[in-house]
């Protein structure tokens, strides 16, 4: 079995085990949460959070958490279950609020929490809006509570909660500068990288790495700079991939439509690269499509043709690979300190990500 196959098998195992754990968590939540007996809306809020949470993807954050612990030891590590629940509950919080900000009707093959509330309260848009915000807030609170309730030494619980609190604060700021980015006609590369770092890399990569090392008894603060660098590089690469696929991806393979960033007028990596590469008539075509919610498949096809002809697609792929290779070199430097098998996972992970956009 190749290293990649073995790693993918471990990732699939983490996913199966965690999905069962998450379901059990929500089964217990109704009895452990001090829900007002007279409230009709609270159980419904918990139901929506459960449905969204259990419609998860590959649980890569959970995999990163477990592989981070494997950097230190291949023995069972206490606290990983609580950390995994916290990571995914924080993700649920982010999805609820993201879909509200983006006015997204669907998420993970079902209705977004916001649109579920809009359907439930068609004559009370303010209530639908407020309940969506509160549902996301509750998921965030639960992500911290699960750590405080974990059967771990108090110092470890406190450190883990601090990691997640910092990750959440960084993500909130990332959302703010993400919205700010779209007010700039053409944001520079530094701003695009900063959005990717704050909005996703810090909670999706850095926090799971930090939590896994903490649970395994390591002191991640001693390696903060290289952990942050690795997470930032992989986060930038991942955001580039997502932005690239939004224009050049296959909707059937991705399970969602392409062109969302174009129709919403978002200044993504792809959009900024496209604007930088065109002028004259071609630029007028691109600018006319940006922010037009009625953009047709033919319009998107025309933009793809322009982007291909101007080398935008190839340039984005090159940039993804460059960042992935930089991240791989950072992880390769961990070999003298940590276990080979897990180091190899983190070394190859960024390159696997690039291959998904090939």
UniProtKB/TrEMBL annotation:
Cofactor(s) this protein requires: Mg(2+)
GO biological process, any: isoprenoid biosynthetic process
Family statement: Belongs to the FPP/GGPP synthase family.
InterPro entries xref list: Isoprenoid_synthase_dom_sf, Polyprenyl_synt, Polyprenyl_synt_CS
CDD domains: Trans_IPPS_HT
Name by which UniProt lists this protein: Polyprenyl synthetase family protein
Keywords: Isoprene biosynthesis, Magnesium, Metal-binding, Transferase
Source organism per UniProt: Streptomyces nitrosporeus
């Amino acid at each position: 079995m190749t290293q990649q196959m073995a790693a993918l098998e471990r990732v699939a195992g983490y996913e199966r085990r965690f999905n069962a754990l998450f379901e059990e968590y929500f089964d217990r939540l109704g009895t452990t949460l001090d829900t007002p007996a007279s409230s009709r809306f609270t159980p419904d809020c918990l139901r929506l959070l459960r449905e969204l949470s259990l419609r998860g993807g590959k649980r890569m954050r959970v995999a990163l958490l477990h592989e981070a612990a494997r950097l230190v030891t291949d023995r069972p590590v206490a606290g990983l279950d609580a950390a995994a629940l916290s990571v995914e509950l924080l993700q649920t919080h982010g999805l609820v609020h993201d879909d509200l900000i983006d006015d997204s009707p669907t998420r993970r093959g079902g209705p977004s929490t916001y649109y579920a509330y809009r359907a439930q309260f068609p004559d009370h848009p303010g209530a639908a809006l407020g309940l969506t915000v509160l549902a996301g807030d509750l998921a965030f609170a639960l992500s911290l509570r699960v750590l405080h309730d974990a059967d771990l030494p108090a110092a470890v619980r406190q450190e883990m909660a601090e990691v997640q609190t910092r990750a959440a604060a960084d993500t909130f700021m990332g959302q703010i500068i993400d919205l700010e980015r779209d007010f700039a006609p053409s944001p520079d590369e530094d701003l695009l990288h900063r959005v990717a770092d704050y909005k996703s890399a810090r909670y999706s990569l850095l926090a799971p790495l930090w939590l896994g090392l903490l649970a395994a008894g390591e002191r991640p603060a001693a390696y903060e700079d290289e952990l942050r660098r690795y997470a930032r590089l992989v986060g930038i690469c991942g955001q580039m991939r997502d932005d690239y696929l939004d224009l050049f991806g296959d909707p059937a393979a991705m399970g969602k439509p392409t062109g969302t960033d174009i129709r919403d007028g978002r200044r993504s990596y792809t959009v900024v690269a496209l604007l930088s590469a065109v002028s004259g008539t071609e630029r007028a075509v691109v600018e006319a499509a940006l922010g037009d919610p009625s953009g047709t498949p033919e319009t998107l096809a025309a933009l793809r043709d322009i982007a291909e002809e101007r080398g935008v697609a190839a340039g984005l792929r090159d940039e993804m690979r460059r960042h992935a290779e930089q991240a791989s070199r950072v992880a390769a430097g961990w070999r003298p300190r940590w276990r080979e098998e897990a180091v190899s996972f983190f070394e190859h992970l960024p390159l696997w990500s690039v291959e998904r956009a090939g």
